[in-house]
Fold this sequence. Notes:
It is a single chain. The protein is of the alpha+beta class. Helix content is 39%, strand content 10%. The chain has 4 helices and 3 strands. Helix 3 packs across helix 4.
Amino acid sequence: MAAVTSPETSPQPRVYFQTAAAGSTEEPETPVRKQGRVTVKYDRKELRKRLNLEEWIIGQLTDLYDCEEEAIPELEIDVEELLDMPSDDDRGARVKDLLVDCYKPTEDFVSDLLDKIRGMQKLTTPQKK
């Protein structure tokens, strides 16, 4: 049985496992807790930046397409793909290609997006040891 402590009691979430004595069929009165710790190998600050960027992109696209989020045309602006590109010119051209069917001007959006992703790090999949 596992229990997770609340953020108010501990600065980081912790998982405790109850263990029973070997050969014992009855529950112990006071559970023995063995502490385990789950760590995330992604940088939380980068994840937060990425989430904020994605929320900003959705907001901008709803304005550009003048519709609700659910009605935005199938469009995927892949930040990882943009970060892989060698220059801002290539990134800008890629985003403009994706927005080809938008009837509103997209230059400000593209410029702001490039400013926001400048300096971001790629999120790599954690390697198992």
